[in-house]
Write a structure and sequence with these properties.
Length: 437
């Protein structure tokens, strides 16, 4: 085969994934003069173009967009970039990094080829041929397979079904009522998008928490940044590694940013239910936990604000007076069935997330749930790393705000190992022959 980038088959480092994480690491490795190759299955930073709806905007303020050597460049640091602005900014980052990358190439398997001790290499099998590397970084993210429950197979063929990754705008859906399943960030924002467009929305909630957009005169993210929340490593979080399984708080940056209050939507005509659990006899089956879900979300909202109150008091800061959210609507009853035909539901949008798929990584670094076990991206398999995962190290690890710090950390680890490999090679009388693992 001919190798599409540089005509080489071996690199010191192969980075699998060309999103913001992989490109951030490429930037850090280039600064250290470490040769590497980025292999991207589709196109660089493609998910921001292909897996976001038309009205999508950031839920974190623009000032938190800080990729290596490429911060937010606009005039509204406390605003929230919309989809086209995000993609323009990322296109600038791609041009800034100039990563040695190949696109449209799928990595099918990563495995170790054993030599002697520190001379081990990795095989990186792709759909266009084989590469080898001294070290490999998996930077493909953790959102690979859209989750759609098996009960979806029971729905009539007349009902259009979409995953949140496929949703674009209300006009895409057929006329009629819409059932949105899940109220995390995507579910809550898509439900709002449909609601604002005048569509009849039925929302099956879950246990997602929520937070305020603004509190006591400032954006809540600004307060939390001052409180060093975004610098807290996973090892110091009260939930420890359990925080990686948490659903993100729902809030929006739309129209300058605001709270998302499902109770207000209900007061305006949106129909709310508990957790969706099944479909039988033409009706959706739902758990009687709507009140519990709403109360839990509000409790988190008030708890975050209370922590800000304590910070303000401890620092002796001047700020508008504190407040506590009180519900603007309460469910009259817990409805456990939703008749599809009677409600006029013609489409369902599944907003229950993604599952990771690391089956192509042939290494003993995964737990029983298929998640990689690591310390700040460094695994027990020498030379194998992960980058860009939620809470890899801090809250910002899977976002624009923290991936630069993680990339810098891994670049240092990679450089140290590279120096060790070089020393080992100089001491060895001859390079050992590689044998297949």
């Amino acid at each position: 085969m001919s190798y599409p980038y540089g005509g080489r088959s071996h690199y010191s480092v192969v980075i699998v994934g060309g999103g913001q994480a992989g490109l951030s690491l490429s930037h850090c490795l280039q600064q250290r003069g470490i040769d590497h190759l980025v292999i991207e299955k589709r196109s660089l930073v493609h998910s921001w173009r292909t897996q976001r709806w038309d009205s999508f905007c950031l839920v974190t303020p623009n000032w938190q967009c800080q990729l290596p050597g490429w911060g937010y460049l606009g005039s509204d640091p406390h605003g929230f970039m919309v989809k086209d602005q995000i993609n323009d900014w990322l296109a600038g980052f791609v041009a800034h990094v100039k990563a040695p990358a190949i696109e449209g190439v799928t990595v099918e398997r990563v495995s170790r080829v054993q030599g002697t001790g520190e001379r081990d290499r990795f095989m990186v099998q792709t759909d266009t041929g084989l590469y080898t590397a001294d070290q490999v970084v998996v930077a493909s993210g953790g959102y690979h397979r859209p989750i759609v429950p098996r009960l979806a197979e029971k729905l009539p063929a007349t009902v259009a079904q979409y995953h949140s990754a496929q949703y674009r705008n209300p006009a895409q859906l057929p006329e009629g009522a819409v059932l949105v399943v899940g109220c995390g960030q995507s579910g809550a924002q898509i439900a709002e998008d449909l609601h604002l467009a005048g569509r009849k929305v039925h929302l099956a909630t879950g246990n997602a928490p929520r937070c305020a957009r603004f509190y006591r005169g400032r954006e809540v993210v600004d307060w939390l940044a001052d409180m060093k929340y975004y610098d807290m490593p996973v090892t110091e979080h009260p939930l420890r590694e359990g925080v990686r399984d948490n659903t993100n708080h729902y809030v929006t940056g739309r129209d300058g940013g605001r709270d998302i209050d499902l109770r207000r939507f209900a007061r305006e005509g949106m129909e709310l239910y508990g957790l969706l659990s099944g479909f039988d006899g033409g009706s959706f089956e739902l758990q009687p936990n709507l009140r519990e879900n709403l109360d839990s979300a509000d409790a988190t909202y008030n708890r975050i604000n209370a922590s800000i109150d304590k910070f303000i008091a401890a620092q002796g800061l001047e700020a508008p007076p504190p407040s506590v959210y009180t519900p603007v609507w309460e469910p009259a009853e817990e409805r456990t069935r939703l008749d599809l035909a009677a409600a006029g539901i013609t489409s369902v949008v599944w907003c229950i997330g993604f599952s990771p798929d690391f089956a192509w990584v042939d290494a003993p670094v995964f737990n029983g749930r298929g998640a990689p076990v690591h310390q700040r991206g460094v695994t027990n398999e020498p030379g194998l790393y992960f980058l860009g995962l939620p809470w890899l190290h801090t809250w910002g690890s899977g976002r624009f705000s923290g991936v630069a710090r993680d990339a810098e950390f891994l670049a240092e680890a990679i450089e140290e190992r590279k120096m060790g490999l070089r020393s080992s090679a100089m001491e060895a009388p001859s390079a050992p022959a590689l044998r297949a693992a």
